[in-house]
Amino acid sequence: MAVPTGIAVASASINYDYAETVTKSDTVNLTGLCRALWVGGAGVVAGVLDNGDVVQFTVAASTLLPVRLRRVNSTNTTATLMVALY
Questions:
Q1: 20 to 30 A from 49, CA-CA: which of 34, 41, 71, 77?
Q2: Cα torsion for 60, 66, 70, 71, to the nearest 10°?
Q3: What is the domain extent for residue 70?
Q4: How many domains does the chain have?
Q5: Is 9 part of a structural domain of the chain?
C-alpha cells in the first residue's frame, strides 16, 4: 500500500510480531514496551512512556499511534478498543 501524500513515516512496511488487548490500569504495565498502539474507539489515551512520563493523546477512531508505551492508564483514558503491538 502506498503512503498517502503528506504523511511522513520511517518505513511504509512496518510489521508487528505480537499483539495484546490493552486493559487500562494505573498500576499494571503491559507485557512489554509496545512499538505502537491501535486505538479502535476515539478519545484520549493517557500512556506511560518507558521513563515514567505520562503523556496524553487525543485520537480519532481507528488510529495507529506510533508510540512506545509501557502502560495505558485508566485515569484520563477515554479511548476504547486498544491493542498494543510489539
A1: 41
A2: 0
A3: 19-85
A4: 1
A5: no
Name the nearest CA neighbour of 39 among 21, 27, 51. Answer: 21
Cα separation, 69 vs 55, in Å, equals 10
Share of the chain above pLDDT 90, in %: 84
Give burial (CB, 10 Å; 0-12/13-18/19+) of 33: middle
Tens of pLDDT, residues 3-41? 444 444 455 567 999 999 999 999 999 999 999 999 999
Strands of the sheet with 54-59, listed across from one edge: 54-59, 43-48, 71-72
Q: Is 59 helix (H, G, I), strand (E, B) or coil?
A: strand
